[in-house]
Amino acid sequence: MTSTPSAAPAADTSYYARHIFFCLNERKSGEECCAQHQAQAGFDRCKQRIRDADHNGPGQVRVNKAGCLDRCAGGPVAVVYPEAVWYTYVDSADIDEIVDSHLLGGKPVERLRLPPSLGR
């Protein structure tokens, strides 16, 4: 998909139109964490898709690694700003849907939203 991210904030309010953070935290204690659920693969897929669409960089989309986002029970998790939409995902098809629908198209993927009550 090669469209421009829609529903982006005004240029003076944000350096990026959208910014997605992937929790890649790994707990040494063996506690549940996103790293145990292929979070790195999700991050890598998203980053490559955004690059392939030529939508990375200022005014477009930024894909970032994050430490613990403290929503481990829903892992793996990612969050998209400025909309503050929290996602869980299980495979590359889910990542593709987040990229195409939300990051590039401006429409959050309701079926992948993390319930607000789900925390650690």
Q: Can you describe this structure?
A:
The chain has 120 residues and is of the alpha+beta class. It has one domain (18-112): Glutaredoxin. Helices cover 22% and strands 18% of the residues. It has helices at residues 39-52, 92-103, and strands at residues 18-23, 61-66, 77-81, 85-88. A four-stranded mixed β-sheet has the order 2-1-3-4, covered by helices on one side. Helix 1 (39-52) links the parallel strand 1 and strand 2 (61-66). Helix 1 (39-52) crosses helix 2 (92-103). The radius of gyration is 14 Å and the shape is globular.
Tally of extended strands?
4
Tell me the strand order in the biggest sheet: 2-1-3-4
Mean pLDDT equals 88
Largest sheet properties: 4 strands, mixed
**N-to-C order of helices and strands:** EHEEEH
C-alpha Rg, in Å? 14 Å
SS content category: alpha+beta
Q: Class in CATH?
A: Alpha Beta
Query: First CA to last CA: what distance?
Result: 35 Å
Q: Hey, roughly how much beta strand do the residues contain? A: 15-25%
**CATH-defined architecture:** 3-Layer(aba) Sandwich
Please give a handful of descriptors for the protein shown.
120 residues; alpha+beta; 22% helix; 2 helices; Glutaredoxin; four-stranded mixed beta sheet
Write the layout of secondary structure elements.
Elements: E1 18-23, H1 39-52, E2 61-66, E3 77-81, E4 85-88, H2 92-103
Parallel strand pairs: 1-2
Antiparallel strand pairs: 1-3, 3-4
Helix pairs in contact: 1-2
